[in-house]
Amino acid sequence: MLVLLILAMLGMAEARASAVVRSFDGSTTQSLNRLIRRLDAGMGSSNLTLSCANRCGHLTFSYPFGIGAGCFRNPEFSLICNHTTNPPKLFLHDGSSTSTTQVVGDIYPSGMSVNFWGKHLQFSSFFVNFSKTIPMKSGLDAYNMSWTPGKTFSLLSTMSLSVIACDLDVYLVHKDLGNRELICKVSCPSIEIAEQVYRQDRHGPGSCSFTYSALTVRTLEFQFVPHKTSKIKTQSRLNILWDTIDITINILIIWSILDQTSCSRSMEDSNYACVSHHSECTVPLADKGYICRCISGYEGNPYISGGCSAVHEYNSRPLKANCSRRCGNISVPFPFGIEEGCSARKTFKLNCSDTTPPVLWHNNGFVEVTYINVNEGLLGIKYESSVGDESFNIMLQSSEADEPNLYVNPLESASVQWAVANLTCQEAEKNTSGYACVSVHSFCLGVISSMEGYVGYRCACLRGFEGNPYIPDGCEDIDECKRTPGLCKGNCQNTIGNYTCTKCPDHTEYDITKMQCTPVRKQNFYLGIVIGLSSGLGMLLFGLTTIFLVQRWKRDVQKKLRRKYFRRNNGLLLEQLISGDENASERKKIFSFEELKRATNNFDPARILGRGGHGTVYKGILSNQHVVAIKKSQIIREGEISDFINEVAILSQINHRNIVKLFGCCLETEVPLLVYDFIPNGSLFESLHHDSSNMVSLTWNDCLRIASEAAGALCYLHSAASISIFHRDVKSSNILLDTNNAAKVSDFGASRIVPIDQTHVATNVQGTFGYFDPEYYQTGQLNEKSDVYSFGVVLLELLIRKKPVFTAESGMDESLCNYFLLEIRSRQPKEIVAAQVLEEASEEEINGVASLAEKCLRLKGEERPTMKEVETTLQQLRMNRTNSSQVYPAVEYEMQGHQSMAMNLAGRTYNVTSQRSQNACYSLEQEFLASASLPR
């Protein structure tokens, strides 16, 4: 409970230890620095001597800590600044030649206090980062590591631990109890997977976070035990995962003065540390030694003489003359300031960096200030990207213990409201010496937060005035007449805080161009009318003639361009083939662009059904009321043209009830448009992963049937069609569902046709992440087993009802394939499937589909089943699900059809009902395919 209370004081009570530091390679050093700066109650910037450094890179520190002889209290407080890095890094001086304990937070002399169950506890702290690498050797059963930062320091047990290695268990050793505690397991399923994850995330292969229940400890001890089945993988290009153990610990160090064991004894000692006036000794959280702090109403460094100074309230005037009021191109008006004595209070002091260009920071270092609007009470802000959302509510609070919080939580907006004091306007006006609204034409108004209620008051200029209400005569009159020309339809006269309008004198009128009253010109009224009408009529006729000629010219250009595209896309050849083949004309039709334009209401965005990697699909209604889906390329590239022609050629050659049917095409555009039957029920992906209230609900029977139908379609493509076709982009979003929820395999833009005498084809690697065949990715050689691997991922979606790449409980993206292969080793399939599947499916069916998916996902393609074997397995599961005495006729007929097809596969033939139709189909489509010059 006390550990959590302390973390709550640090602004991270709702975050686990892993949220304390988001990475262990130093990327959040500045964030930790600024968080500690805000949280340490009394910031002291004084040092023991003027020659002692108090900064290393972005970090600051104060006595009793220091760098160099005479700048620190004792060797335990000695620091080292490594200037060889950019920015420089700060380390504790642990006596070794190369220190491994890096300081990642500012060190301030005054600590912070908590009230725990009536007991007042005080502590001083800062964050450190300890790193160590242990080489692994063959034959060793365990590796031990211990860390003690020093006798002056205690370790707050809530920490973040990162272990980069593979195949080992991490134990926390409790020497006082004589036992050890398993805190995490690090496993890497294979070299390829580990390296792939390692390349994407430096801390992906193995890391863990934990919270130890003790309050403070002096020493941390760990033991790393390799798994017995693990061997050092010397063949790996990333040997760091198996040859070394990289340990990084980020933890809060609590420090105290150990000269004496109590405050009463310390005061009698000549080496008493609390040397400043208005300082006092207090017992630290670790209950060893003592720490110093400034008494209430004072702030600063209690460890140096004169270090504690009185806390000042709001200063209505700057204490320093000739203050600098600019940082780069940003104006810094009072009550803000960038120098000591130039701001109204310390929470309004800003820091201007010495970089090029300069950057204006809030004094806590978390927030970059982009502008200051004193009249509106707004501060433009930009958060540092490495700071977590859980710290937003404290980043703009005062860095002083006695300063009130005068900033309103911005809730990720680009600006934040602020107040000058947490008083009401009535209370503020009574304090004439500290009243902030000192300009004559200013007034007081309250600052109210929707979450925090009343915050305080701020000042603003009266209406008709602008400027700075916080300085004398800061609100100046606005000349509305000059600022807004044409404000009056007459003479405009500026007054103090307002303006007046008077009408133009007789025989004058207001001239908008001259913005003044001018004499009225006498003209021949009728002559003006005649001239105006004649000019208008002439311009109208000229405009109509021009529009007519331009429109006619555009139509001619469009016709020529469409004819050019038609010829380039082999439209003349296809037109001749269709006109000479009555069977082909029944199957396909060549549409004009105007027909498809009318069918889609000029390609209205409201008609868009979906977007994919190969184009945009629109819903169209033809003149005969036939509903179709029209595929149009969104970006015109040479590769897109090849993909669309490729899909035309492929769909022209296949005729299967579970493959989307090509209805026709349009060749009058730069990229051909495809027209195919409209599938009304969306995709399998939408039914599985979108809001079930808006989509078709699928039962387990439906899932088995859809999987079987899709497998049959892919089997047809691989082995039953006249030319083998590899789909290359099998995924649940490319399996559409018709009105009866029958599967329709679609999107052949990435597919490739394979000659009969070849088993694979070398292509540029394409596909969708999450469905990708690892073997195809490595070799670049596409074969039928690549579609089998992708279909295995679809089976996992049906079983587990998770997306191919989903967000795990840890917040990281995780591959569904990796998740399944890892979980199936230690758990039964029924323990990892979705609740609906567990409720509707039998254990035999779950085990059967899980086993089939595992075979499809094998890394080596030769070990995967063929699509025919996949289809047969799914059909058998469907048959077993029915009553043995009642076989559905449709299923029986389908199984007989597949058995007949399987018998014909040995001779690479495919029987169809009408031989005449088949010959007509191929005579047309093969000739069109040959003319298209498709890439192989």
From TrEMBL:
MF terms (GO), sorted A to Z: ATP binding; calcium ion binding; polysaccharide binding; protein serine/threonine kinase activity
Mode of membrane association: Single-pass type I membrane protein
SUPFAM superfamilies reported for this sequence: EGF/Laminin, Protein kinase-like (PK-like)
Gene3D superfamilies registered for this protein in UniProt: Laminin, Phosphorylase Kinase, domain 1, Transferase(Phosphotransferase) domain 1
Keyword field: ATP-binding, Disulfide bond, Glycoprotein, Kinase, Membrane, Nucleotide-binding, Serine/threonine-protein kinase, Signal, Transferase, Transmembrane, Transmembrane helix
Protein origin, superkingdom: Eukaryota
Signal peptide: 1-15
InterPro entries named among the record's database cross-references: EGF (IPR000742), EGF-like_Ca-bd_dom (IPR001881), EGF_Ca-bd_CS (IPR018097), Kinase-like_dom_sf (IPR011009), Prot_kinase_dom (IPR000719), Protein_kinase_ATP_BS (IPR017441), Ser/Thr_kinase_AS (IPR008271), WAK-like (IPR045274)
Transmembrane segments: 525-550
Domain Protein kinase: 603-874
Binding-site positions, ATP: K632
A Pfam family it matches: Pkinase
BP GO annotations: cell surface receptor signaling pathway
Compartment list: Membrane
A GO cellular-component term linked to this record: plasma membrane
Protein name: Protein kinase domain-containing protein
Organism in which the protein naturally occurs: Triticum urartu
Organism lineage string: Eukaryota, Viridiplantae, Streptophyta, Embryophyta, Tracheophyta
